[in-house]
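Researcher: We plan to redesign the surface later, but first we want a full-length starting point. Tokens attached.
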């Protein structure tokens, strides 16, 4: 198997794993406090990441990389999990997955800002159209949607895009799984004490579904998914493999409908497809 093919396979596996993040979070926040879920998943993944770094005797990152690792940690370890957990108390996972269609665009924008690239004007046309599709959908939902939930999802997409772009840049030097592992370790001194401080007083009220949701977002969404994702980006190229994110809303909608029995209307499907087309156009004209 050549390197390019391996990169696409790894990227695809990572994307599928990430597709289950929002449905799993939706199940977990039914019994867990969103803040506890955020710090607990980061703590569990950080301890596993630390064990991997020690087992493979990875050298410490340079001091110049610490600020970038903090950005990655704030974006994908703390920011996105916390904001989506809070949002999922106001909106369904199927509704929130529509916003994930903007994630490739958010990543591309921060990649442009960090890399100093100058995309063609058509890029921004597709960018604005994609954003208008999502805003229009949120307004169309009216009473069935939540402005608070929508704003939280927008914020989550912004910080996650920043974390993805910064992590992709670092992965060229540190390696794929090493980036997320070090980012998790950097956050551990804060996440571990918070986990112990705000843990539930009565564990008996936590249902099996919430435990399974916590296990999924801790092991797969927070660590294993990134191992495949960053490895795929490193092998197949960030721009090419990154386009696999465009498939994530479709997989997420299928999971929300099959596992959580949530209603996925035609309007939601059409908006998701429109957003994906806009993001694909923006990606095409990024250079």
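Model: Full-length starting sequence:
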């Amino acid at each position: 198997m050549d390197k390019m093919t391996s990169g696409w396979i790894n990227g695809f596996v990572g994307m599928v794993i990430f597709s289950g993040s929002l449905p799993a979070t939706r199940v977990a926040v039914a019994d867990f406090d969103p803040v506890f879920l955020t710090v607990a998943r980061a703590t569990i993944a950080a301890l596993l990441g630390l064990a991997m770094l020690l087992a493979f005797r990875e050298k410490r990152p340079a001091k110049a990389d610490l600020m970038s690792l903090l950005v990655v940690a704030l974006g994908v370890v703390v920011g996105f999990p916390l904001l989506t957990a809070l949002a999922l108390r106001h909106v369904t996972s199927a509704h929130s997955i529509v916003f994930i269609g903007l994630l490739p665009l958010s990543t591309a924008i921060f990649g442009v800002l960090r890399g100093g690239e100058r995309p063609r004007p058509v890029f921004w046309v597709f960018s604005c159209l994609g954003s208008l599709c999502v805003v229009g959908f949120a307004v169309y939902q009216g009473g069935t949607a939540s402005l608070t939930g929508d704003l939280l999802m927008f914020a989550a997409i912004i910080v996650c895009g920043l974390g993805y772009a910064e992590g992709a840049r670092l992965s060229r030097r540190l390696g794929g799984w090493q980036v997320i592992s070090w980012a998790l370790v950097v956050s551990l001194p804060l996440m571990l004490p918070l986990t112990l401080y705000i843990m539930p007083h009565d564990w008996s009220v936590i249902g099996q579904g919430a435990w399974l949701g916590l296990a999924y977002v801790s092991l797969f969404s927070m660590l294993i998914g990134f191992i495949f994702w960053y490895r795929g980006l490193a092998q197949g190229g960030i721009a090419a493999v990154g386009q696999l994110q465009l498939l994530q809303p479709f997989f997420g909608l299928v999971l929300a409908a099959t596992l959580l029995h949530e209603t996925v209307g035609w309007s939601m499907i059409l908006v998701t497809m429109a957003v994906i087309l806009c993001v694909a156009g923006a990606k095409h004209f990024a250079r």
